[in-house]
Amino acid sequence: xxxxxTTPRLILRELTVQDxxxxxxxxxxPNVLRYTGDSPFASIRQAATFLANYTHYSIHxxxxxxxxxxxxxxFLGWCGLKLHEEGFVDLGFRLFEKxxxxxxxxxxxxxxxxxxxxxxxxxEIIGRAxxxxxxxxxxxxxxxxxxxxxxxxxxxxxxxxYKLIRESYNSKPLRSI
Length: 177
Fold this sequence. Notes:
Blueprint lengths: L2 E4 L3 E5 L5 H7 L3 H4 L10 H9 L3 H5 L3 E6 L5 E9 L5 E7 L8 H17 L3 E7 L3 H9 L3 E8 L2 E10 L12
Parallel strand pairs: 5-6
Antiparallel strand pairs: 1-2, 2-3, 3-4, 4-5, 6-8, 7-8
């Protein structure tokens, strides 16, 4: 199990097949999937197969990572970077609903941006969210991302696209919005 980075409260590590039950459960909550355009996994086995075949780490050197609470070792969800077919790197996050509102998504996302800019050497990272997903848009803005455009995102029409370029990136504490 490869640890990517840590924060005061979180460990971001590579996802493994051992995460299949948590991964499956995360994606069964309709509130978690509400704005994503994703379908839930049909079974834990299907989630395990997805994780076993997840090659983003070996191909690109980064990917979506498990978000683990440091004190309880609890799987909170995932966060990380993904290279899309269109050529851009996207910041994404998804946490269990019971973990919303504690700042975990923002903390994990900030660590992911830092990793992308400082370790991978990316020049630009984008974030995308349904226009109705105000909580995710607030996180993207809090991270210093600026609105770029509206477009379709994974089947979700009229998604808001935000971006952050390396020259504008600042790893100091987040601003309030």
